[in-house]
Specification:
Radius of gyration: 16 Å
Strand content: 15-25%
CATH topology: Rossmann fold
CATH architecture: 3-Layer(aba) Sandwich
CATH superfamily: Alpha/Beta hydrolase fold, catalytic domain
Shape: globular
Distance between the termini: 43 Å
Number of helices: 7
């Protein structure tokens, strides 16, 4: 148990919009925070417009928190802690709610983006869409991608933490080889290591669009 007055335990949080109708399949977006952050920070990256858009489409939001200060593969080079935790939380949601698996998305910013792309490509193949905002890199899948998701990749051209030439420009090229025939939406914006509100909105509209990614 946490010490009295100490920080709450790190957990996963599910947000069910008032527009959700039981029995009617809804989109589900899993949202991953950056290093040293938590669920509230991840939600803040969506912005008021993004939250309103998701609410209008009855989108469920699952926001897990890493077991440590950031996602396990970044500090331990393994997926032994956070991936099972995310998978368990996700399976619980899938058992309890009606989810449109054609709109099962995974989004992350910074370290969360690195993790999202790594498990989105190398995981069990559940995700239909992966939104990758300012990643530091990713762990390529060990074999063939089981079920290639659509990928939306965005990065600021003035990012000094994860310079774009060393990260997303290379990643975009690698994804072209990993996902042949699967278009990757790649957006560069004039900004630093941040979530650009207009790019975030564009990414969410891409995820929620009725056509295939």
């Amino acid at each position: 148990m946490p010490a009295p007055g100490g920080p709450p335990p790190r957990d996963a949080y599910l947000f069910v919009p008032p527009t959700y109708a039981p029995g009617k399949p809804s989109p589900l977006l899993v949202l991953l925070h950056g290093a040293g952050k938590g669920a509230a920070d991840a939600l803040a990256t969506l912005g008021p417009q993004g939250l309103e858009l998701l609410k209008s489409r009855a989108c469920l939001l699952l926001v897990p928190e890493s077991r440590g200060a950031t996602w396990d593969v970044i500090t331990t080079s393994s997926f032994k802690q956070d991936l099972p935790f995310i998978a368990s939380a996700l399976q619980q949601v899938l058992r309890s709610y009606s989810v449109d698996t054609r709109r099962l998305g995974l989004e992350g910013f910074s370290d969360g983006a690195t993790y999202a792309l790594s498990i989105g490509l190398g995981g069990p193949g559940l995700f239909s869409h992966v939104i990758v905002l300012s990643p530091g890199g990713f762990v390529p899948p060990a074999g063939r991608v089981k079920s290639a998701p659509g990928v939306f990749l965005a990065h600021g051209t003035r990012d000094t933490l994860f310079p774009i030439d060393q990260t997303s420009r290379r990643i975009a090229s690698e994804l072209g080889q990993l996902l042949p025939g699967r278009p990757v939406k790649y957006v560069q914006f004039s900004g630093g290591h941040e979530v650009d509100p207009s790019v975030q909105q564009q990414a969410l509209e891409w995820f929620l669009a009725p056509s295939a990614p």
